[in-house]
Protein: DUF4193 domain-containing protein
Amino acid sequence: MATDYDAPRKTEDDSESIEALKERVPDKTSGSIDNEDADNPSGFELPGADLSDIELDVVVLPPQEDEFTCMNCFLVKHRSQIAEESGPGFICRECAA
Structure:
């Protein structure tokens, strides 16, 4: 007998009513959701907010012996990513492709 694979499949779950399916869906108000962002406990920052009075502490590491800066994309990569050497420096594999 030929089987039509494009025909919708009927299973035991198809016989359930919409009300029965709605009962299985969890109520959105039943659980408590913590909307507070753990990284930003003071609230959400709005776009265009003045952040000029905030100082950021960033540790800048000097170039390591096994790293190079791609002269095309200017990303710091591991030396295993060197594809070719151009006049001023190296080109990474992604930029050479």
User: Anything to note?
Assistant: The longest strand covers residues 82-85. The radius of gyration is 29 Å.
